[in-house]
Amino acid sequence: MASALTGLYAHHHGVRQNCTLLDESLFSLPEYLVSRGYECAAFVSNYVLTQELSGLNQGFDHFDDLLPDKEPNRESYERKAGATVDRVLAWLAARDSDKPLFLWVHLIDPHGPYTPPEGFAERFPHGPAKELSRDLIPDYQFRDTLDLNDYLSRYDGEIAYCDEEIGRLVAGLKEADLYESGAILFHADHGESLGEHGAWFRHGQDLFGPCVRIPFVLKLPEGTPGPHMAASDVLVSVLDVTPTLLELAGVGDPPELDGGSLLPVLAGDRRDGLEIFMERKRARGFTVVG
Question: For residue 61, is pLDDT > 90?
Answer without folding.
Answer: yes
